[in-house]
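Deliverable D4.2, example record:
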Amino acid sequence: MKRFIYIILAATAAFTACKKDESAKINDVTIQVVIGNEPVTDAVEVTVTDKSSSTAYKATTINGTATFQLVAGIYEASATVYKESSIFNGTNPAVTVVDNGTNSFRLELSESTTSQVIIKELYFAGCMDNEDAKDYALDKYVILYNNSPVEADASKFAFAIGSPANSYATNNYLKDGKLTYSDYIPAWTACWWFDTNVRIAPYSQIVISITGAINHTETYRNSVDLSKADYVFYDPEVFNNVSNYPAPSASIPASNYLKTYCYGMGNAWAISKTSPAFFIFSPEGTSSKDFVTNPENIESPTGKPAFNCAKIPVKWIKDGVEVFDNANLQKSNKRLLDSVDAGYICFTGKKGFTAYRNVDKEATEALAENEGKLVYNYAGGTEAEEGGSTDPSGIDAEASIAKGAHIIYKDTNNSKNDFHQRKVSSIKK
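Output generated by the structure prediction step:
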């Protein structure tokens, strides 16, 4: 039933139109869904998105193939399949439909794993200053959440960003429309990691300041207060840019400062304020420090140090969220593999918006302890904005948590399904 609900929720968000122009030629387009080299015989809902307009079309496979009627253009095909306890995701960003041609394409799915600890929220795009004259984006943070009823150990967790920093920048790892890596993710410039014991209680969170663990609202009223963050990216011996890393609030103990190592260039960790590919990982058989300080684990796709990346094995990655800039969708390309994040969340910067995870409605409602505690009619999304989105569950997670509810967030390893653009940061009161 859970898998069926996911499909229904996804379907309700799609446009149903099939034509851009009444006079344009309509072409038959087929998408074959495969795992390995084997067609998926179960009925699978395939979404095809027009990359020029973001219009989405949906069709269900018959004997492994979905059929569409589309005008010429560049599209992206994606699908999610649930088989037993596994999730299979796939995206084909190069569905180029031509008039009077053979418009047959493959959509290869790869297995994804869910994690106990997930990225609940990523705030990176900043806000406008008090005069609405310029933007301010030195107030970034991430929230990790224990999406389970069992205490989580996050002590070995580390943080990284994919290459390139922006979704629309030249991607030196992209060849003939495909990423050149398959079993690792290139982490650009530096990685950060916890330097203390980190435990997260069931259905609880930790707030980690990425830049500026201070009360930013004292200077910029539209910003956020990070003076009470639980942990902070702060290692001035490596990154000494005081604009990004002012002295943290005295309420945050030095033991809760994360450590880093810069194997690239720069005096700060340049997480994008428009479109980062952000992920968390936990190394196996080594430490983050030992791994990233080993030159054998570092590469540059151009040979230049400014493009240096650490090759983080996919099997280490716990969660990731890919962001595309709404203003540059046509030029944007994936950096995270389908097994990490098969989709992306479209985002508009400078407005104080935040990437916030959707609620798993069925799973959350199934918890007996949530009886009478769930708040509905969620109105925190940005669906009224061009390129905006909202949580299809309709559950107001933060209001429900305030009433003592335990929230289970959606985790399909596809940010199109799992995240929406929220109007206001969840920590902004």
